[in-house]
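Format notes (please read before filing issues)

Several people have asked whether sequences and structure tokens are stored in separate files. They are not. Every record keeps both together, in the order shown below: the sequence lines, then the token lines. Line labels are part of the format and must not be stripped during preprocessing.
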Amino acid sequence: MATDSALVKALVERVHAVYGAELSDVERKCWTVVHEHHHGAMPTEYDIREIDEDLYLAVLEAVRKRH
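Then the structure lines:
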């Protein structure tokens, strides 16, 4: 499935806006931002709703390349 590059870029920017330059635990941080995009809110501690895995992986890869 193709992922919208403008959306990925916007979500990468959101990761950095929310978490700053320090990206330890980058998987969780990318997941929370994709979750926020998909569900309209950051996840709660026990939120297990699904997200778009392809989008998550694209954001994660882009964040890692940028960092």
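For reference, the curators noted about this record: DSSP finds three helices and no strands in the chain. Helices lie at 5-19, 26-39, 53-66.
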